[in-house]
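__Record contents__

***
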Amino acid sequence: MRAAVLYGTGDLRVEERPVPHAGPGQLVVRMLYAGLCGTDVEAYEHPILPPDMVLGHENVGEIIEVGEGVRGDCTVGMRIICGPPDACADGCPACRVGKTNVCSSAFPHTNGIGGPDGGMAEFMLVADADHTMLIPVPEGVDPRDAVLYDPVCVALHGVRRSSFRVGDDVVVSGAGPVALGAIQFLKAGGARRLVVLGTNSAKFDLLRRYGADVCIHALESTDLAGDIREALGRPEGADVTFECAGNATSLRNCVFAAAKNGSQVVLLGTIATPMDLVQAQFGPREIDLMGSFVYTREEIGIFLDMLRSGKVAFPDMVGDVIGLDDVVTRGLCRPERSSALKILVDPALR
């Protein structure tokens, strides 16, 4: 089979590898789509993953082989989401109370990140089926939509963890897939006024179609706090603010320009650079900074149910579908990557 293998920084090669076979407690899936994530870009640019790793941790495929002893209803031919690890085999404190998203051993066992090879290949081995989020794709749900579970459920988890209530005024900072997911769920949940801060006006029409009431160009505004309050139609800031862009400037905008006193800022973006927030500058305003990390099995189920019923939809979130040979040039290194939406890898494309 063909696979996209990351050997080190800036060194990804498409090569032939043996097709995996399922041992006890394992599955083999024929890959339909793998989502290209910011973590993949980070891994290509910096040495954060083990060498000799097939990338791809956002995976949807079709089961072709079921190993002995696999529990549940996994059958050959089933289309399935292959998510991150589920409750760990060690029964850690987080997993015992259902918080599998903060399991201390999850990342080292995630396909395409620290554990078995990922889904940017024609076939993928699920090495521990009993402790992996394996969720059937319902009839009527396109696998191309189902594979959006990762960024969309990151947003869903953060909205559910937040203090957001029906009728709240909300600000979302960012315009990528996580932000689009947050906008959908916030509108479905009854946001009164929803303002989005972005840095690419070409995305504003799409943001408005998803449910943004007002889009503000964060780099062009000369009075961001004033523009936000005018857009909200109130003299104070947002009831809840969601940071989805994943950079320190966006976080500062959320804390100092968007959030009202006594409100909450939810961190959905992954900020990999040092932050220079001075607590004395926002502590007296009693701003709560709330972390949020990935999602649970339950939330993937909610996403699929809402998708199937038409309560949410994600049109035009996928910006491109590429083959393995284009992972570097049209995915990891594409010049317009900052303006792209979700990129999917279809290993069958040539």
Remarks:
- The radius of gyration is 20 Å.
- The chain has a mean pLDDT of 94.
